[in-house]
Amino acid sequence: MARYILFSGLIDTLDLYTKEFERIFLSWQAECLVLDAAHMDEEMVRLKAFLLQPVTAAVSFNNIGLHLELEDGQNIWDALQVSFWNILMDHPFHYKKALDTAPDQTTLLCMDRNHVEYVRRFFPNIKQAVFFPHAGIQVRKKSEILPLRERKIDVLYAGGLSRYAAEGLIPDLGKITEFDAFALVRNTLERLIQEPDHTTEQVMEQCLKEMSLAIDDQRLGEIISSLRFVDSFAVSFYREQMVRVLAENGITVTVFGAGWERCEWEHPNFIYGGEIPPGQILELMNQSKVILNTMTWFKRGAHDRIFNGMLAGAAVVTDTSEYLQEQFRDGRELCMFSLKNMHVLADIVKELLENMDSAQSVADCGYEEAYAHHMWKNRLGEICTGQ
Predict the structure, then answer these.
(1) pTM listed for this prediction
(2) Pairing of strands 315-319, 128-131
(3) What is the pLDDT of residue 168?
(4) Which of 20, 126, 134, 10 is nearest to 64 (CA)?
């Protein structure tokens, strides 16, 4: 029998995934131990008892439980030879310290192919990194899904403006004497906005080269990690622009997530609902005609908003990526646009809202494709059979 260790209790969104993983594993007749990561000292007794028998893998998100130790200071996963599947929901440069000291038993599951390449280059201690794209959760059965015409919300966007949270990541740039950090940050951000097809690490490295700096990969990784707030600023810029473009073109957009209350603009078509639990977001998707997605600068991956929106029976509109272009046909299962041509976004959404038959076709095709190929059970099935 397969046996898995899972972690919960720290972040609502991750708990939603963990609960889904547990449900899937149990449906496969596996045994699961779900540990409360907020009280690991108390949970160690349960963990050690579970580890008395062979364990298939510990499965976690964003390094939770990665560095658990035995009394003698040994990493528990290395000491007991337990595979640790560490699923990164964000770019690896957000977790440099944790990944630099990751146990040998780590398998890193990355949401973007560029992240896999980044790990292989900047974290050579990680022996195994694989592409593990986002997936979706089905909240309602197909028979319970409302037709688009009966839905109350025209356009739903669920995602925060991360630049405000990222303000706390900004180091004292004046203390960096190795190069002009202010110029590097300014040039990187300007170029990301002008050339949004490029990754943050690509642009920052190019800007450093143009400053005639010879930096090895170890130091480059340190610099990218320390200045990673630039990535959040670029993401937030385009998120805000997309919502604003729709609102100013007469389209009502309902938004949930942190940071929007700090916007410096207002519009009657912009409806802000604050922050709500992720489970409620999934339910609201079932009341929405169009789900708007923006990538977190994932150029060769996806985001769970896409697949959750499809499984909710909505028409999904998203900026594109290499992975999405491989998996879907634009205008059939979803609608895609490039950040370089964001002016077409309002036309795409208007077309869907004004032609419900066409929008329903997109929603129906999207649902079928997501249900068949893009649920978490599909992703876990792939990784479990590949081990």
Answers:
(1) 0.95
(2) unpaired
(3) 84
(4) 10
